[in-house]
Please model this.
Amino acid sequence: MRKAFVTLTIALVMVLGAVPQIAAQSTITSDTEITMENIDDYLRTGEVRFIDFRNYDDALRAGYIAGFELVPFFDYLENRALVRNDGWNFSSDDIVDEAMLERLFGPKDQVIVGICRLGIRSAYVFEALEHLGWTNLINAGGFDDYEGRYKIAGDGVWTGAKAIPAGGVTMENIDEFLHRPGAKYVDFRNVADKYTDGYIDGFEVISFFEFLEERALVRHDGWNFREANIVDEFLLEDIFGPKDRELFLMCLSGARSGYVKAALEALGYENVYNVGGIRDYAGDRMIFGDPSFEL
Model:
């Protein structure tokens, strides 16, 4: 009988010991102090909404906290719902789409815990929401300070761009890889060709025959490249930028772009893609030319 009593007592202590934690979590308000040091204690609270205001590429590169949803400030909220007129100093004039904020953040009495990288974006958004009547907002700070158990590690490199396929980028799939962050898109046809034959929206013309040849490159054997063909390395670096930059090159048939690709790779460029010739392009970004145009 005594053994049963002891067992029952231990069970009651275990249950009662859990009560304060449950009660504390079920009564979270804006006065509750939640920081990056104790946030793990609250992450499994069903009534609380956890929002990370960093961009998607930040979360997948640097990591994120399991249980947080992403509402990117720079990629989504800024210039749609909020426009910063004075840095991170909020004013009511910064709110340009109140209805959008109400759709995104829901009931104004719901507890919302926000974070970003340093806590600046979350503080700014919460000032806007408080101005509109939200009452239970907690800025927990910055992800950079988080050392808890629910961290999902990022890969350290992702920039928000789709991975290049093993087969490379061609005229068949170039539309999927336009407008990548930091990338450069170059068409090596003559300037007049752009306006007479048309061009792919997003590509700039740097004419091979009219500009690069004899200035940066000299061909000694047709389109067969040798390092001796480079006569102005600095001009090429000035035009194409950092050597880890993504470069997408094209021309009429792919010969000129292939030649320049070989030259750039000889200089140490790592991410150069010869997309091919515009005569093979059948995508959605074609800007048609006027064959009667004369430059």
Summary: The chain has a mean pLDDT of 90.
